[in-house]
């Protein structure tokens, strides 16, 4: 018969054995290819950034990192796929600002808070409030004054219902106490074309897709949406500087894992991402697209995403936004 002390020693050995196995698993991650699911079409902004980062991650980790596009339903199809994936760290979601907006606007086949673990914010990019070169508006106060004098006469574009461009426009309406008509497009490219032609008055355009048009004079920049001016446009004020206090809106991309992924694996993947985004070559490639590398911790990114969801939820209620 085993003594009590023998049983205790056996239990401790088993406990430490399992802990060692867990540590060994974490220390070896990754030991096989990683699939990064981008829930948007190939060739778009998120896809282009993901491919640059994936290349760096492969070099840092020593394992191949494969991009798999699963677009549709504003990113929710790809997100749902990852939510159901095996929680072992090898199927990763690379999502954008829509991840925090979708839950407050749409019925989703997953719970954004319960079904995912935010791992790291990858990039951020401000939006530029643009108008046609021949527009009568030269500054944001010009537009606000005109909109107040002629409620609902003026329009703002977005690259789709529920997009960050719409949220930025709605936030401007709320904070500036103006009215403007939302004109959604099926993507940023057609929105830019119509703003250039004067069919729509203004548009919070992603800097990565609009900066070149601004610097070449094909679009006029009225303000930038971030809290700080863009180095590439030092003479263009922020929305806050133009009189709308505390206005700070940036588009972002980040990595998520399915809930239930072991904490050690989350930490290992976070470290791979952070090391990748700290590499000068990766930062340079992203910078050429107008993107700023971030590489935050899982804890910081979790708080950021939660804060974003609360913020947009409050705006949806205040402005009675409905995308159905």
UniProtKB/TrEMBL annotation:
Key words of the record: Signal
Signal peptide range: 1-26
Gene3D superfamilies from the UniProt entry: Bordetella uptake gene, domain 1 (3.40.190.150), Periplasmic binding protein-like II (3.40.190.10)
Domain of life: Bacteria
Pfam families: TctC
PANTHER family: BLR1237 PROTEIN, TRICARBOXYLATE-BINDING PROTEIN
Family under the similarity heading: Belongs to the UPF0065 (bug) family.
Record's protein name: LacI family transcriptional regulator
Annotated organism of origin: Bordetella genomosp. 5
């Amino acid at each position: 018969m085993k003594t009590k002390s023998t049983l205790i020693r056996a239990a401790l050995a088993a406990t430490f054995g399992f802990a060692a196995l867990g540590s060994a698993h974490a220390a070896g991650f990754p030991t096989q290819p990683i699939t990064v699911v981008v829930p948007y079409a190939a060739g778009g902004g998120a896809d282009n950034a993901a491919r640059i980062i994936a290349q760096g991650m492969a070099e840092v980790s020593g394992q191949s990192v494969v991009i798999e596009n699963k677009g549709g339903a504003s990113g929710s199809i790809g997100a749902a796929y990852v939510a159901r994936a095996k929680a072992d760290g090898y199927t990763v979601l690379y999502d954008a600002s829509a991840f925090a907006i979708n839950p407050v606007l749409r019925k989703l086949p997953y719970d954004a808070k319960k079904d995912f673990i935010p791992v790291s914010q990858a990039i951020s990019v401000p939006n530029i409030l643009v108008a046609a070169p021949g527009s009568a508006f030269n500054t944001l106060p010009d537009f606000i004054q005109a909109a107040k004098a002629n409620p609902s006469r003026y329009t703002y574009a977005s690259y789709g219902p529920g997009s960050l461009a719409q949220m930025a426009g709605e936030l401007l309406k709320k904070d500036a106490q103006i009215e403007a008509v939302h004109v959604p497009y099926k993507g940023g490219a057609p929105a830019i074309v119509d703003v250039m032609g004067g069919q729509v008055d203004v548009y919070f355009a992603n800097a990565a897709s609009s900066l070149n048009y601004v610097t070449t004079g094909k679009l006029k920049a009225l303000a930038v949406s971030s809290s700080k001016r863009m180095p590439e446009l030092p003479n263009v004020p922020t929305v806050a500087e133009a009189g709308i206090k505390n206005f700070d809106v940036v588009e972002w991309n980040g990595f998520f894992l399915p809930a239930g992924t072991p904490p050690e694996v989350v930490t290992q993947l976070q470290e791979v991402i952070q090391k990748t985004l700290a590499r000068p070559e990766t930062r340079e490639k992203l910078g050429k697209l107008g993107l700023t590398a971030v590489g935050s911790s899982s804890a910081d990114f979790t708080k950021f995403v939660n804060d974003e969801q609360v913020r947009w939820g409050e705006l949806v209620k205040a402005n009675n936004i409905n995308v159905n």
